[in-house]
Amino acid sequence: MAAGALDHPGRVRARRAPARVRPAGRLVEGRDLGWPWWAGAFLVAAVPAGAAFLAWERRVVAAGRSPLIELRLFAERGFRIGVAAAVALFVVPSFFLFLGLYLQDGGGVTPIESGVAFAPLAAALVWRVGAHATARAARGPVALGSRTAA
User: Fold this and answer.
1) How far apart, in whole angstroms, are the C-alpha atoms of residue 6 and residue 28?
2) How many domains are there within the chain?
3) What is the distance between the alpha carbons of residues 47 and 52, in angstroms, rounded to a whole number?
4) This model's pTM is above 0.70
5) Cα–Cα distance between 49 and 19 in angstroms, integer?
6) Residue 7 domain flag
7) Residue 32 is assigned to a structural domain of this protein
8) Residue 134 contacts residue 107 (beta carbons within 8 Å)
9) What residue numbers bound the domain in which 4 lies?
């Protein structure tokens, strides 16, 4: 395999771990399905599939070929912070979506009441994070504007 060639075995292994988790995404229906045995089995099977992918990528690097994911990037603090921020940007909105749906379905509240339940959190977030972020860039009107938005 050439240095710039795509790592096809790594690509296949990278697809196996999420493929183990994807059917377990039906856990949302678990209660209605009576929690079948495969619900946990797919989640457990994703761990060795992910470990096999990481082991393969290390072998590819040791052989001097081009890996699918440069694992050495995780040694750099800035990269780890960026990955954590990207994960948070995907997880937090999903959390609020599912919590809002839970309040409506399980809590018996209306969509408006569910949205109003998050208003104090949104205001606090804009107040603290918005003011902190703008305090570094500018003082006065910009910081005041972000707090007024809260």
Assistant:
1) 36
2) 1
3) 9
4) no
5) 9
6) yes
7) yes
8) no
9) 1-75
Tokens of 24: 């377990």
List, in order, residues 6 or more apart from 46 with CB less than 8 Å away.
17, 18, 20, 21, 24
5-53 pLDDT per residue, tens? 767 777 676 666 555 555 555 666 766 777 777 777 777 887 888 898 8
Is residue 89 in a domain? no
pLDDT in tens, 110-150: 999 988 988 888 777 777 766 666 556 556 665 566 566 55
Cα–Cα dist 90/83, whole Å? 11
The token pair at 146 is 């972000």
First to last CA, the chain: 56
